[in-house]
Amino acid sequence: MGEKVARRHLWYKVAGSLGLVALLWALAPATQTAAGVTLGSGCVYLMAGQTMEAGTVCVSGPSNGSLTVTFQTTSSWAMTSVHLDVVGAASDFPETRSNNPIPGKFPYAYSATYPFSSHTFTVDLSSLSSSGDTSYYIAAHAVVWNTASEQSVVAVSNTETSIVGASTGPYEGAVAPGPQSGPAALAYQPKAGTYPSCSDQGPGLGTAGLWNQGIGSAYTNIFEPDGAHWIWNYASVIPTAEQITGQIVDFQQTFDVAGTPVGPGTLDIAADNAYKASINGAKIGQARIGPGFPNTLMEDVGSGPQKGSWGVASQGWQTVGSYPFTPSAGTNTLAVTAVNEYQSSGSTAGFPADYYLGWNGSGYTSTSYSDPTPFDTGDGCTNPGGVIFAASVPIYTQSESAWGGAGGTGGTPFPGANWATYFIYPAN
Predict the structure, then answer these.
(1) Which end of the chain, C or N, has fewer beta carbons within 10 A?
(2) Which residues of 195-207 are buried (b: 16+ CB within 10 A; e: fewer)?
(3) How far is CA 42 from CA 139, 228, 401, in A?
């Protein structure tokens, strides 16, 4: 059999004429374009930036008093918003005084958090002032994004991360030697194999570090390529009371999404010992924070599940958490609260670590159990704190305005100075 013929029944208005001039597109096979778009009956091209084929706008009906209008992009483009108006006469479109259309006033509109490739409107024709006419004037507008412009925005833990608060914990005698606000410091890792000694272990992502060893290949595959580091509010080699009483440190990192997010962002994070994170005030996730937090940072070091009103779990810090989050176009604020646990001598004496230890100036002495030996703080890494994170957001960076039938592909220009177009669809 011979090749099927696609009859295009799109009609166009000729300015100044008293009626519609039937410009039958072609009684010929549909043409495959370089962009991979095949026009069928009732379709016009969706043109980005006037000259780039971004997809199609296709109309069908009327059926049951309605038209169906579908926006469809090619694989090279995606939409974040579409606007549609269908009227009985070109003079019915909302326009500025200079006769340019106003898509924001079109009665049919749709937008989404992330780009999409297709959207369909069902247009009620009953309210048109000239609904008995045989032709409909259609203005179809979209904001489109070039998928080839995809890149990633990354925010990581480093010395550009801000500290917006640091608590010495709810215990007397604890005095933080570092700043309560300011830039984060690179935390010194406990040295693998000789914990709790880290006097000769430098900051950063040294492979000999206990933290790096604990999280395994995750730090190489996730954190290292993005330049993330273990951070805290001061270098942990300084002997401090907080290494016993524990500490809460609030970190903050801002980053700009200069484009449209392609999909959810991802936060990868690990901390010794616990954390909670939010983006723009919305919670992302948390780990190892107990029912007593933040009123207590005490741990339960039993072999089973944490019990009672514990504040911070001492086990499980090796797990790297991965959380999706919804970013915003423009400035985003990532907030991370990291927590180091209250480590009593119960950890080594076999007692539950849920009792108070009195600070005697050089160590801690139990006030609840017969354990008179002060907890030695002479070593700088008795109980260091550290957190590492990387947040990544995929985005498109190139956007264009697109109109159905623009660029001489089947539309009629609006009278104004811009290149916006409408097209005319005949009723069946």
Answers:
(1) N
(2) ebebeebebbbee
(3) 14, 53, 22
